[in-house]
Every structure is written in C-alpha cells, then in structure tokens.
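Query protein
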Amino acid sequence: MDMTGRGETEHQRLTRNVNELLGELRVAQAGVQILFGFLLAVVFTPMFAEAGLLVKALHLAAVLLAVLATALLSAPATWHRVLFRKGLRREILAEGNRMVLAGLACLAAALTVTVSLIGYVVFGLVALIVLAVLVSACFTYLWVVAPRRLQRIKQDPPAGNRP
C-alpha cells in the first residue's frame, strides 16, 4: 500500500532513506579522512616538536574532534551492517540521523580549530580569534541558518504566490 505519494511502501521508503543516509555519509567521511591525515602528518614534523603548549593543545583538540566525527559518521553504516536484517530500519534511520548531525558538528569544530590553529601559527592570536569566528559563522550559516531560512520560505510563500 502506497502511504508516501511516491508509489512506494513504507518498507521501500525506509530502505531508500537509509541508502540516502549512507550515501551522504560517503561525502562527509571523505572530508574527515583528509583532515585526519593532515593532522596526523603534522605531528611528525620538526616544527611541531618545537611548538608551544597552545599549538599542541589545539592540535590535539582538532585530532580528537576528527576522531569523534569519524566515529559518529561511520556508526550508521556499522549499525546498518549489524542490524539490517533485524527489521530495525526506522530505528537505524532515526539514530543514524542524530549521529550524522553530531558528526557533522564535530567535523565543523575540527575544521574550525584546524584553520584557527594555522592562523595562530602564521599570524598570531588575533588571527586565531578572527578565523575561529569567521569559520564558525560560515558553518553556522551554511549548515543551520540557510536551511532553516529555506524551510521557512517553503512553508510560508510570499503573499502573491499563495493560493
């Protein structure tokens, strides 16, 4: 029985949604893997050995955020693999969505810390602060504000476009 208006059953819709979620994860995981590789390589440079406590602390924070992002962004695929034959697609989708959002927040934080750290090493404390604010604002606008704005526009069309 079609309950969705798309000609698919609830089971088909859940399967499609889980597959879409897993596809979206591939994009996010690539970014985390690149960042993580960069962060790992930095530790083994002579310059890092001479770095001060703030640089090392910020670097470790970025690494830990990237690890947490990796764990959160890979968990839905693991859950799917472990639970897909148990009839838990709805639960996998709901929990997976929460984990992906948390993972993306960790990714944004890791990227913000990394860019801010680079700014600090190159230009100093003011650059760290300015870059942290700018990068945070960019992620907040693109990932939170803009989608909500689009949702509001879709829900409340201009007066001239109302039926």
The chain has a mean pLDDT of 88.
